[in-house]
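Section 3.1: Structural characterization of target chains.
Under the original work plan, the team committed to producing a structural model for every single-chain target entering the pipeline before any wet-lab resources were allocated. The record below documents one such target. The sequence was received from the expression subgroup and is listed exactly as submitted; it comprises 325 residues.
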Amino acid sequence: MKRITAILLALIVPITILHGCYKPVKPPQNSKIRVVCTVFPQYDWARQIIGDKADNFELMLLLNNRIDLHSYQPTVDDMVQISTCDLFIYVGGKSDGWAYELLKGAVNNDMIVINLLDVLGNAAQEEEIIEGMEEEPEDEGGNDGEIEYDEHVWLSLRNAIVFCTAIADALSSLDDADADRYYGNLSAYTESLEALDIEYRAMVDEAPIKTLLFGDRFPFRYLMDDYGLTSYAAFSGCSAETEASFDTIVFLANKVDELGLKTVLVTESADQSIAGTIINNTEHKNQRILVLDAMQSVSQNDIQDGATYRSIMESNLAVLREALR
C-alpha cells in the first residue's frame, strides 16, 4: 500500500499542477486562509486559537471518519487540499511517510508546515518495547537504523501547550491583522490546559496505584511519562499486530495478579477481546475493562456533538482516577 501511495504521489502531484481542472488559482487577499490538519487534536487546537475569527479560515480535518492514523492513505482530493493550503499540520512520524513526498511537490510555495515531532525536538520519545509486550517483526527492507519515534505526542497536556504556541505563531503570520486576538486565545487556552495538568498531577499524587495495564496498543507513553506512571501493554503504540501470543497473555495476567490491579485498559477503538482474555487468565477474573481515549478515531459526528481536545482529556482523567484507586 505504501509503495502504491508513493507511485500515486509521483503521478498525481505533477498532474494537479499541470492540468486546469486541478490547477489552483492563487486566492485573493480577502479569501479564507486554508488550514489542513491530519488528526483531531491539531484541528481542535487550531479551532481554539482561531476562536471567533472562524470566518477568516477554512479548517479541514483529514482523519475525520474514524480512520486510524497508522492506516491512513491520502485520497486524490486530500493531496490537492494539502498541496494548495496555507498551513499544513501533521505529526511527522513513520505513519506520515506519505506527506514528505507530497510536500516536495506542493503548489503553494508559501505554505507554512508544522511537523509536531520537529516542534517537540529533543523531547520526542523513541518507540519502546516494554517488558512482556509483543515485539514487532522486522520490516522486510529493514529501517537502515532510522530511529522510530512515538507518534502520539498529543496525549501530553504539556506537549499540547508547546504545539498550540507553534500554531498561534503560524496563524498570526498568515493573518497578522488579528495576531493579538490569536495570542489572546492562546493565553486563555494555555491556562485551561495548565489547570487540567494540575488536576492530573494531584490525582496521581494521591492515587494508591501507580501502574496501568493495557490489553491493547499503548499510545499513552507521553501521558504516563508526564506523571511518573508505570505501564504494561500487549502492543506498542504504533503496532500493526492484532493478536497477542500466549506468552503475552500469561505475562499480563500474572502482572494483574502480582500488582493487585482492579482494571485492564483499552483504547477507544479496541474490540476488548484481548483485555477479556487477560482477565479470564487472572486468579479472580473480576477486573473491569476501562477505555482511555487516544483520540485516534474522532469522527465528524463526535465534533458536531461537542468533542474537544480538553473534554476528552477531562474524560481520560476520570478514567485514570478510577483505574488508579
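The chain has two domains: 2-119+149-190, 209-294.
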